Amino acid sequence: MQVVAEHITKLLNGDEDGPKVRAQERSMNRFVGCCPDEVFETYVKEKKTVGQKRKRQHDHQAANGESAAETNMEKRYPKGHLPPAPFTLTCEEKKQADARLSSMHFPVGFGDVPGSLFTHIRGGVKSHTWNRLFTNGVLRYCLRGMLGTEQRESLNNFLMGLETLFKSPSDLNTNDQVAEGWHVTLCRMERDFPLSLQSFVMHLLHHLPSYVKLYGPPSNFWMFPYERFIKTLSECITNSRYPELNVVKKMETQWLVNMLDIAGFLEPLRSRPEPQQTGLRYLEQGAYRPKPQPVNELERKALARLFGIPALTNQCITVFHYAKRHLGGSEVQYRDSSVEDPNQREKACMVACDLPQGQFVGVVKYFFSCVMNTDTHELVFMEWIGKPEQCSDSKCFKVQRTLRPPPPLTWVSQLSAPLIYAWDKEVLWIPMM
């Protein structure tokens, strides 16, 4: 995945585009208008074998009396003089795409996102980060409205196909339909982008649906756990003379410690955790302790409307700032907006929720628990923004502020996972719901 992602990104920003690529495409009657005649004549028509080239240089040197250094100089065409191509970004588009990437906010645990991806690729981007960028709609948002129409449509279909496959549909019939559309998508990528992109790794993506059908989600057979385990093994080596024996002894010790921990023998050695409120499933203490406080007028009316009872009196709630849930086999963390820095890039307060009025997107103001008829309820106070609408071009979702928001209270169990989002001209953009 990292190889494919890097090649596509480098082609978009022009690193893997040049006169030779344009000339080769024109020789196959592809993107003819993107290759000037001078480039085509230099890199295709005048192309010779090594023996023919040496003979021509020798004859030219003998006829004109030029030095070998002057004769061996190849004729080159400046890369910056090439006309714009529909499969590459212009300088202004690269700056705009990087600005959109910098304005995005990501949930906790998403990974380290580089500040620049198109003006220049910074080294050290991990394969896990490339995977998240290409399978969570980030690239679709950054390239919104850019490239040629066919190239943009093919790339969006390619990225959405990756998102679907990494969701790994369990229905075999759905998987077969996805596989058929996936092959068509890869063929369109071959049609609308230079053939230099069609490496062996790109061809292997044709087999991804069959692997998903055989082995389940890509997380079942990708290499990230093995790479992390190799790092753990390398850190165990403290004796360069007998590294294998050193690793085995260290892992035996680690295994023994894990068994003692599972059996509960290490519990007395740990510091006793602070007592938490009983009966809670999602709300957590975190860095800020829960704070009991009386219900204000707005909360009182919202509680009465949520539970369908008369207005409460003398009701007390406990305010939390953190929550945690298990969704789709993974753990997601929430933070309310009061404990997050406005300039912080990692945010976990933007969520979606299915309400009787429809699906709404909003910001978590705070969590709280309250006791009603001896039952403890875990609720969240929201600031609703509006309903998401899908953009026909990029397939991202845009949310505009509504004049009639729904009631602010809902259950924590109804919240979606924290969303990736960005603000652009008073419009909230969400790459993937």
From TrEMBL:
Organism for this UniProt entry: Mizuhopecten yessoensis (Japanese scallop)
Which residues lie within the region annotated Disordered? Answer: 49-70
Family matches, as InterPro entries: DUF4218
State the coiled-coil residue ranges.
none
Q: What is this protein called?
A: DUF4218 domain-containing protein
The chain positions of domain DUF4218 read 176-248
TM stretches of this protein: none
